[in-house]
Design goal:
Residues 11-61, 196-242 form the Siroheme decarboxylase NirL-like HTH domain. It catalyses: siroheme + 2 H(+) = 12,18-didecarboxysiroheme + 2 CO2. Its EC number is 4.1.1.111. Pathway: Porphyrin-containing compound metabolism. The protein is α+β, with helices and mostly antiparallel strands. It has a domain at 12-67 and 186-249: Arc Repressor Mutant, subunit A (Orthogonal Bundle), CATH 1.10.10. The protein contains 12 helices and 11 strands. The strands form 2 sheets. It has a 9-stranded antiparallel sheet. Helix 2 packs across helix 3 (45-57) and helix 7 (194-203) packs across helix 8.
């Protein structure tokens, strides 16, 4: 399980409590700590803030704050696969990674498609231009796999200890304080105002780890605190922000087995299979993507993570069993591609995408 991760019970409780659901109020650590005490964890406002600060400094967290939904901010992103021959692997990876539009890049176990990267652009038409340039530079064909349906994006990683829920189910983990904060009215506008753009860019890498993080953000961008609270709360309800809280470094928590399972699901069953697989709590990402005839027969992706090879295999088997309830799954109908190397991980930068989606006021 997770006993080898060097965390105290208090630290485990904090990691489990707030991978989402963190309150949007002037002094959020006070009600957040109070809710933890109601669940049996002895911690106060200062203790909660200091624990998160320490976890962040030690690299247990990637950051603290909102997880911005780039898709709702503007522009586009797509997953791309390609082949890099062993004798040219480093050269090709360097050429791919040199493109600023490439946000993530992983080597994965596959006999042919061993390089998998994400392209993020302000204008969707730029995707084809970037891929054409990569093909020209590397001499290798790229296979564009844009998201056609999203069934789940919920990358939460719990550890054994207080507030962890049940070991396999994990549905009881976490504290939800999203009901706190200002009442807001949702808006129909898909574009951002200049002030909203400034806010998104300020918080995309996290919130300040202070007693008043939202007030500090307001000071930086020259807005009133109440406007920042209302806008962040509205963005959370509109889906521009997926959740607010601690964002763990899953490798630091022992989730070293990263398995991208891919499936050739009959087209008429994708709508049934998708929500059911997405409901499995250990599935962090779940999408429908296009096939590429003769090269890539799979149209369904489900990402799983495990803290050991055995745990990862159990979880993948649960996905297979879920699939098998809908059709006769054979060995040729699926595969699991484990990541063997992180080749690039800069994150999806929102600067150009937000700017292109900002309206003139």
């Amino acid at each position: 399980m997770n006993a080898d991760v060097d965390l105290t019970d208090r630290e485990r409780a904090v990691v489990n409590a707030y991978q989402g659901g963190f309150p949007v109020v002037e002094r959020p650590f006070e009600p957040a700590a109070s809710a933890m005490r109601d669940r049996g964890v002895d911690i106060d406002e200062t203790g909660l803030l200091e624990t998160i600060q320490d976890l962040d400094e030690r690299g247990v967290l990637s950051r603290f704050g909102p997880l911005v939904n780039a898709q709702e901010i503007g522009g586009a992103a797509t997953l791309v696969a390609m082949h890099a021959p062993e004798e040219r692997f480093d050269e090709i990876v360097e050429q791919v990674n040199a493109h600023r539009e490439v946000a993530h890049n992983y080597e994965r176990e596959h006999p042919h498609l061993n390089v998998w990267f994400v392209v993020s652009v302000a204008d969707e038409q730029r995707v084809s231009e970037v891929l054409a340039a990569i093909e020209d530079e590397t001499g290798q064909e790229t296979y564009n796999l844009p998201k056609q349906q999203e069934f789940r994006v919920e990358a939460k990683f719990y550890v054994d200890g207080p507030l962890d829920g049940s070991s396999e189910n994990e549905t009881d983990a976490g504290i939800d304080l999203t009901e706190l904060g200002p009442d807001v009215q949702l808006r129909d506008k898909s574009t951002l105002s200049p002030a909203e753009r400034d806010l998104v860019l300020e918080i995309q890498d996290g919130l300040p780890l202070t007693e008043t993080p939202y007030a500090d953000v307001a000071d930086v961008i020259g807005q009133e605190l109440e406007w920042v609270l209302e806008t962040i709360k509205r963005f959370e309800q509109e889906g521009k922000i997926r959740r607010i809280g601690v964002v763990p470094n899953h490798y630091a928590l022992g989730y070293t087995e990263n398995g991208m399972t891919v499936w050739n699901v009959p087209d008429d069953l994708v709508g049934e299979v998708g929500p059911e697989v997405a409901s499995l709590p250990f599935v962090t990402h779940c999408y429908e993507r296009p096939r590429h005839e003769g090269v890539w027969p799979y149209n369904f992706f489900a990402m799983t993570h495990g803290r050991s090879e055995a745990e990862s295999e159990r979880r993948i088997e649960q996905v297979r069993e879920t699939m098998a309830r809908h059709w006769d799954v054979t060995d040729e109908d699926w595969d699991s591609l484990f990541s063997t190397q992180i080749l690039k991980k800069t994150g999806i930068r929102l600067d150009e995408r937000a700017a292109a989606n900002t309206r003139t006021e």
